[in-house]
Amino acid sequence: MRAHRIPLTGLAISMALTLAACSSGQDQAASQQPSATGTAAAAPAPAAMAGALTADQVNVEMALQGAPTLSVDGQFINVTVSLANHGKTVLSSTGPNPVNLGAHSADANGTVIDNDLARAGLSDIAPGGQATVIIQLPVDKTLGKSAQILPVQENVSWFDAWGTKPLVVGPFNSCATPATGKVCGADGKPLAPAAH
Questions:
Q1: Which domain range does residue 152 map to?
Q2: pLDDT for residue 196
Q3: Is 56 helix (H, G, I), strand (E, B) or coil?
Q4: Which of 31, 52, 137, 145 is geometrically suited to a Cys-Cys bond with 105, CB 3.0 to 4.6 A?
Q5: % helix / strand / coil in the chain, to the nearest 5?
Q6: What is the tens place of the pLDDT at every residue in 125-169?
């Protein structure tokens, strides 16, 4: 009887190994076949910025989101801007010539007083994408002036050279009485404090 048990045990082990091998082969084949419920293959990533941008690559639309607010510490005017990239390249605040949202201060005639008033970094904005950015304008450099806000490719050019119109906010002034607020907008009303 013992002689018959050994071959049966060997046969059982052999069958178990064969089934395991077949099972793992089916799993591999299934993982290599496209799923009927899967999504289509991803489109190739848009070209990232490489060097200086050109006018034919750039098309940015900007809009002011709400009214400017005063930072909690009273040192900055917060301006929220939405940017839509209708151009042909990713806009990014990384790399040797990053794109940032920038601001100039300007006098009543629109003459730029401070070309580098403020900067705010952008998340990567692919063609067809959009982002919302808060740029903080220093109160001490902005009082008595307006701010012109637009993207800039550092060490290359401001986007108005490529047809982007700057958003203009202000002028900002000290409020007539400290009781009404620290900074007033063009309408003479104090800026609301930023939410915490």
A1: 57-193
A2: 61
A3: helix
A4: 145
A5: 20, 35, 40
A6: 999 999 999 999 999 999 999 999 999 999 999 999 999 999 999
